[in-house]
Amino acid sequence: MKKKKREEERIGKVRMLTFGFLAVCVLTMSGLAGCTTTTVVDNGGEEIVEGKPTAMAISIPRVATYADNNATSAEVQFKTADIYVYGASLEKHVSKTLADFTLDGDVYKMKDSIQVLSGNGKKIYVGLNLSAAAKAVIQNSGAYGVYQEAVSAALRDTITSAGGGFAMFSVNTTANTTFNIESGVTSPRGENKNVFPVTVARLASKVTSLKADNIGTAPNNTASGVTFHPEIANGLKFCLGNVNTKTYPLQKISGSVVEDPNYSSSPGLFNEFVNDYGATPWNATASEYVDVNASSTAITARNTKYAVENTSQSPYLQGAMTYASVRALFYPDYVVTGYNATTNVIDTSGNTVVQNDLYVFTTAGGEYLYFTSATDTVAWATDSDNPEAAGRKYLGNYKNGYCFYLIYLAPETAAQKAIYGDYATARNFCYTLNIKKFNALGYPNPNEPNPNNPLGTQTHLTVDVTIQNWSLITTEHELGPL
């Protein structure tokens, strides 16, 4: 338990429920006669003969035992187990299925053994529910790496497959990956030797979103001359943008900092990311934007989006970091129904048309003008005699009465930021976004406004984030532009 606690504190230290990791015990079994080398390594009083044939098996605590309150049944399924043993190179890889294990109490025990070689400082990695592509990457890696890229546009699907189980892999610490395999052990359990606990974590990140109970009432739902309607169908939805398509099976840690394959902040890497939303986010399909849930919704019943780990060096560019795109429906209090270029008079009326296209300007005085006619919009925008000509700013065409907000996913504590950076989507973290208030009109589309610019303070966005293991991060947000 002390070891497990240390691992959880390193991976995610925020108000955590710490049962997101699955413990895996790797056991070496009875030794076989014969040695390929007679090298003897001192092991604190124990002699380890290098290269002696022996046998190994694994036992895995039943996944249900470790199903914390943040995980669905699909997120804790055990379908397959892959065991990798490295010396100077890969010495053994075996793939097992659930049928290869028997259930003894709360522990799945392998029915047969694996022949391996004894030795000092062996690397043992365990992966659960791995895809064929991930297995190939690991088998081609060196003993001290497993940092080869698992590259695929469909990577997110392969590590979050409900049918095949969520992919998990060994947590990268020396104590969790490096073991001395003794020879001559005939009863690992009885002798309490060659029993190696291995902790694994999901490769994916999980994102859910909630809305405050009073978000549909004033003043929380009014800003910029509009009223937002998060309480009605399609009124408030979210999805993910800038989702990574590359990951390392074993988390790469340089010093104490986690680096993914796209760790460089170069804009040239922007094409490595994909978005949930398509070309017409105002007419998004159900698989693109999903409903933001009511605040009382249990985490296992919420609409969920999954991401691939994404870290970056500073400066944190808008185009390099994963974000939640929130889509909100709004009705202007007044719309522009006509413009007289001779008198510079704007005709307005109360808005009786909902979910129409709106052409939005702001004036020098900070007033928002919502045009329903493209003709009137052009006339007002191009009129040189317009008193507002010097200070007017066109915000865009808001299709179907929707605006969009960006919430960049980020660690919460200083300890987490020291490991992952100020903005990051970390594996095995669950981000819960609590949306509390609309402070201003959002953007006309879900794309980053300035991909090459560093992220600044989100002044119109108040966020409460909680992380659990699934390390839960909950953030509170008041919605407005970046």
Give an overview in words.
The two termini are 43 Å apart. The protein has 7 helices and 38 strands. Mean pLDDT is 78; it is low at 1-45, 63-67 and 459-463. The longest helix is centred in the first third of the chain and has 10 residues, at 2-11. Strands 1, 4, 5, 6, 7, 8, 9, 10, 14, 15 and 16 form an 11-stranded antiparallel beta sheet that branches. Strands 17, 27, 28, 36, 37 and 38 form a 6-stranded mixed beta sheet that branches. By secondary structure, it is mainly beta.
Offer a concise description of the structure.
This protein has seven helices and 38 strands. With 482 residues, it is mainly beta.
Features of the shown structure:
single chain, about 475 residues, mainly beta, 6-stranded mixed β-sheet, 7 helices, about 10% helix, disordered N terminus
How many alpha or pi helices? Answer: 7
Count of individual beta strands: 38
Q: How much of the polypeptide forms β-strand, as a percent range?
A: 35-45%
| Main beta sheet | 11 strands, antiparallel
* Uncertain stretches: 1-45, 63-67, 459-463
Mean pLDDT: 78
Measured between the Cα atoms of the first and last residue, the distance is 43 Å
Report the principal-axis shape. elongated
Rg to the nearest angstrom?
Answer: 27 Å
The helix content is under 10%
Query: Which secondary-structure class do the elements indicate?
Result: mainly beta
Q: Multimeric state of these chains?
A: single chain
